[in-house]
Design a protein that fits this description.
Oligomer: single chain
Helix content: under 10%
Mean pLDDT: 79
Radius of gyration: 64 Å
Strand content: over 45%
Structural class: mainly beta
Number of helices: 9
Number of strands: 56
Low-confidence stretches: 1-22, 104-108, 945-967, 991-1012
Length: 1012
């Protein structure tokens, strides 16, 4: 018994000794154990051990730890259930402040079986980031078995609060955890890139294979982003929200957001971090108005070469990526965009853009301009404005003027489609090439429209037709060749209806029919070359009244013409019309100097008489012309150098402006350089016939000439019905101003309107722009005309001076010139005088005439003169002379009649008009106005019956006519108005006393003295 007692006492003593040993060694043992667990060292200021119902409780306080984790823990309680082996009933840590340096290099956290693990009321600093831990609770922690957990962390420098809850297992040294989490007021300013705003996030997470994934939602208030060189100004959004996904594996983290709405467009953003540094950025979006990109994005940093030409519409970011150390690149899808570049303006543009730092690529692009479109456009545009692109087009021709200057061309309808390629740089120029087809094009130029179709190719500004077919009505023309600015080389063949030429060429005659074209047109270095032939056999044309060519008559023109600027060179021109052959070679220099060789042959005029409305029975003759002309300048200041001849034998010719054709032409002319001689041996036109004519000229710069014409008969009506044109002047710089020569004209008979003349002779001299008429004689009006004068043609208007007389002409001619028609006077009249005047026409020249004219007639009879009839009727002289003089049968005989006139501005003024008749004496004074054809005069009529009126017999006159207490009877009247039908009014009736006899004497004898 005693031995058992000793043994029991010894066990009790050993237990007490162990308990005392544990009690006093517990702090150091606990510190040692914590150091091993935390991979560092620990110091426990106080440790207590307790036991209750099989559960051992270890209380540790004021713990200080060093190593991967440093800091202090005020309370740490560990409860172990000894009935279940080594099993932690609970572990509770509270009131701590620790710093975690990062990876400790140890084996990491090794879980231990515990029914409850609690961490409360502490602060943690992790790599300088501080946050608070309100609570972390893990329940039923055991290897290979599920556990649950919850945590409430915050606030910190980055967020207000994060709550986490979930469940998981620990197996094969790895955690597998899932749960939910919520974060409140995460401060985005803590992220790299300096964004601003406060974010809330929530979602489900999974930790598996050392990888954390999170899926949930987020909401950001007052989001603001500064993009540095990529944003023009900070992007501010009052609220953003969307879906969130995050992945953390090792030292890498990826954050994805989706369904983030900005201006009603969804955005998706991916952020990637390495070692918590921002390393990658990816962005995609729905369609957003282009104006938003233009407002915020720094377009000069990415795709700058494309944004200048894009306006409006919307763009979708398929991908926008940035990786640290690399440039940003983006892929956009655009739609409803307007593209404007130079003259090109397309709308509804859509397609894909790939924007790089130096190059923009595009593909699948399409757009429209009006009803035209381009499509399948792809290529690249570089920052240096180089481009390499290709595509297809389908254009409505009516849209072409919107982007291309087509001048006077109008496109009424039609389409063209094809493909094109563009390459090159802006500074060195772009190369554009392609091919297409023109379909049912309706093109109008001026007033003409045609249809066109065919194939073409183009390269840069050169278009090649292969071929182009133009049709309208009977016109069908095929065009082959190429065209570019400054270069044209076209081959034109086909039939052209002359009706379709009217809008392009003013044709001064009627024409119809189909013209055959076979010609080449070339333009190079500013020089035009037009060559080929025109077949006009089936063409009708008519110069009204002069020429008419029917269909079927052979007619062809071959030509080869070169023109550059104002210089035109005709290498060859051959024109045939039936048996008319014309060859021409030469040119025009500067539109002023002409040099050419001309040859014309008509073997038999009768054969082509029907073309010129000639009488085929009388038409005959041959025409031959061969001439070389050099240095012909227009206007003509000197004669050109001419060599050759013109021969017309018994020929016919119809000239424009003449009423009748010229016939019986026998002309020979020789040109010998500085002199020429034209001899006309015969000529006829209507009634006009010239017997001989010759025109000789010597010298080119100051020509001396002689002109002689011998006319059998001349009738002005053969050429013009009436001439009222201008009297020409000779300009100082004209060839006529330098010419001097003699003029001689003889004519047996001349008819001009109502004037007929015979045996006309004219001689004169042209010198210094003055025509001096030394002699002009002709039998005219039954008498003779003999005058001379000067026509000064050197001023702005012709100045004429005429001096001479008309002898023994028909009485009444002078009054006829003033418009008197109701007059008939038998007797010979004489007109003397000189007249000068200035005027551009004959009428204006006479209307301004000045000078002196005397009209005198002897021994005649006035059978009819309306002026005297009205005067006598007003004065009642018929009653006075009743039974003495019968005007109706005999008329009024006169011995003398006439007057002296002073002419001023076409007004003839006289103070001594006289009719000296055995029956009476009529005197007067007044004006005859040539311009108006009116008279304004005073007449005195003294009836003398049949008495002899000489001064020696005045006593007898006094006895017969004298009234008692009075003198001679006379009557006066005023005459005004048209000379053929004037107004006559009685002025007074009186007698002439003896004191007035001298006046009567002067009235009777003054005109005689003047006339004789």
């Amino acid at each position: 018994m005693r031995k058992a007692a000793y043994i029991i006492s010894a066990l009790i003593f050993l237990c007490a000794l162990f308990f005392l040993l544990i009690r006093y060694s517990l702090p150091s043992l606990s510190a040692y154990a914590l150091g091993k667990v935390l991979n560092g060292s620990a110091h426990v200021a106080e440790a207590r051990l307790g036991y209750e119902k099989g559960i051992i409780n270890l209380y540790l306080q004021n713990i200080h730890i060093k190593g991967g984790i440093e800091g202090s823990i005020r309370d740490w309680k560990i409860s172990m259930d000894v009935t279940q082996g080594i099993y932690f009933k609970s572990v509770a840590i509270s009131n701590f402040d620790v710093t975690v340096a990062g990876s400790t290099g140890g084996k990491g956290f090794a879980p231990f079986p515990a029914e409850l693990l609690e961490v409360k009321n502490g602060k943690v600093t992790y790599e300088k980031d501080k946050f608070s831990v309100s609570e972390i609770v893990i329940e039923n922690m055991n290897i290979g078995k599920p556990f649950t957990f919850r945590a409430d962390i915050g606030p910190s420098d980055y967020f207000d609060r994060i709550s986490v809850s979930g469940e998981g297992t620990y197996k094969s040294k790895q955690f597998s955890v899932k749960g939910t989490t919520k974060a409140y007021n995460v401060n985005l300013a803590s992220f790299d890139g300096n964004p601003k705003g406060m974010a809330d996030a929530s979602g489900d997470f999974v930790v598996r294979d050392r990888k954390l994934t999170l899926n949930g939602q987020f909401r950001v208030k007052d989001f603001e982003l500064h993009g540095g060189q990529y944003l023009k100004k900070p992007l501010f959004v009052q609220e953003l929200k969307g879906d969130l996904a995050a992945t953390i594996s090792g030292n890498s983290m990826e954050i994805e957001t989706e369904n983030v709405l900005y201006r009603n467009a969804p955005f998706a953003v991916t952020l990637r971090f390495k070692r918590y540094d921002f390393n990658e950025f990816h962005l995609s979006s729905g369609f957003l108005g282009v104006e938003a990109y233009e407002e915020y994005v720094g377009l000069q940093t990415i795709g700058a070469e494309i944004w200048d030409i894009i306006h409006g519409g919307s763009a979708k970011i398929r991908k926008l990526s940035w990786t640290r150390g690399k440039a940003v690149n983006a892929e956009l899808e655009i739609k409803d965009v307007a593209v404007r570049y130079k003259n090109f303006d397309f709308k509804g543009v859509k397609g894909l853009l790939s924007l790089g730092e130096r190059t923009t690529s595009f593909s699948g692009m399409s757009g429209s301009s009006g009803t035209s479109k381009v499509y399948d456009v792809s290529g690249t545009v570089a920052k240096d404005r180089s481009i390499d692109a290709k595509g297809k087009y389908s254009l409505n021709l009516r849209d072409i003027p919107s982007f291309l200057d087509v001048g006077e061309f109008q496109f009424i309808g039609g389409t063209t489609d094809g493909s094109l390629e563009v390459s090159g740089k802006e500074d060195s120029g772009y190369r554009i090439s392609g091919a297409g087809k023109l379909r049912e094009a309706d093109v109008r130029w001026k007033k003409a429209s045609v249809s066109a179709s065919g194939s073409y190719r183009f390269a840069d500004d050169e278009i090649t037709f292969e071929p182009l077919i133009i049709t309208k009505g009977n016109t069908s023309i095929t065009i082959k060749g190429k065209w570019k600015k400054g270069l044209l080389d076209l081959l034109i063949k086909g039939g052209l209806d002359t009706e379709h030429l009217m809008p392009f060429i003013k044709i001064p005659f009627d024409t119809a029919g189909l013209m055959d074209l076979d010609m080449n047109i070339r333009l190079e270095d500013g020089a035009w070359n037009v060559g080929g032939s025109l077949g006009m056999d089936n063409v009708y044309y008519e110069l009204l009244g002069y020429m008419k060519k029917e269909r079927g008559i052979p007619n062809k023109a071959r030509f080869d013409v070169v023109a550059k600027g104002k210089d035109v060179h005709v290498r060859d021109l051959r024109y045939t019309l039936d048996n008319i052959e014309l060859d021409l070679r030469g040119g025009i220099e500067g539109n002023r100097k002409i040099s050419m060789d001309v040859a014309l042959n008509v073997d038999n005029v009768a054969k082509v008489a029907h073309l010129f409305f000639f009488n085929e029975k009388t038409a005959r003759g041959d025409i031959a012309l061969k001439m070389s002309i050099r240095d012909l300048s227009l206007p003509l200041k000197e004669f050109p150098h001419m060599a050759g001849h013109v021969r017309v034998r018994n020929g016919f010719l119809r000239l424009p402006g003449l009423k009748r054709p010229l016939r019986n032409i026998d002309l020979v002319s020789d040109f010998k350089g500085d002199e020429f001689d034209i001899v006309l041996n015969s000529f006829a036109c209507g009634k006009t016939a010239i017997r001989k004519g010759r025109f000789r000229v010597k010298g080119r710069q100051a020509p001396q000439f002689s002109l002689s014409v011998d006319v059998d008969h001349f009738h002005s009506g053969d050429f013009r019905d009436e001439y009222e044109g201008k009297i020409p002047v000779i300009r100082k710089d004209s060839i006529l101003a330098k010419m001097n020569g003699d003029i001689s004209v003889r004519a047996k008979a001349v008819e001009a309107q109502s004037i007929k003349a015979e045996d006309l002779e004219l001689t004169g001299v042209l010198s210094d722009r003055k025509l001096s008429i030394a002699r002009f004689r002709a039998n005219i009006f039954g008498g003779q005309c003999d005058v001379h004068g000067i026509a000064d043609l050197s001023g702005d208007k012709p100045h004429m001076y005429v001096n001479g007389r008309l002898s023994r002409i028909k009485g009444g001619l002078f009054l006829q010139t003033f418009g008197a028609k109701n007059e008939e006077i038998d007797g010979n009249a004489f007109i003397y005088g000189n007249i000068s005047g200035v005027g551009s026409t004959l009428k204006s020249l006479i209307s301004k005439a000045d000078g002196n004219v005397t009209v005198y007639s002897r021994d005649g009879v006035i059978k009819r003169w309306n002026l005297l009839a009205k005067t006598f009727g007003t004065l009642n002289i018929y009653d006075l002379l009743k039974g003495k003089v019968d005007f109706a049968k005999e008329g009024l005989a006169y011995k003398k009649m006439g007057a002296n006139f002073i002419v001023t501005d076409g007004v003839f003024q006289t103070d001594n008009f006289l009719i000296d008749s055995p029956s009476m004496v009529v005197t007067g004074k007044g004006n005859l106005d040539f311009n108006s054809g009116e008279i304004d005069a005073n007449l005195q009529v003294a009836p003398l019956i049949t008495l002899d009126r000489t001064i020696d017999k005045i006593p007898i006159l006094r006895n017969i006519l004298k009234r008692k207490g009075g003198g001679f009877l006379y009557m006066a009247c005023n005459v005004s108005g048209p000379i053929d039908d004037p107004l006559v009014q009685v002025s007074f009736a009186n007698t002439v006393g003896s004191k007035t006899l001298e006046i009567l004497r002067n009235m009777l004898f003054l005109p005689v003295e003047v006339f004789e």
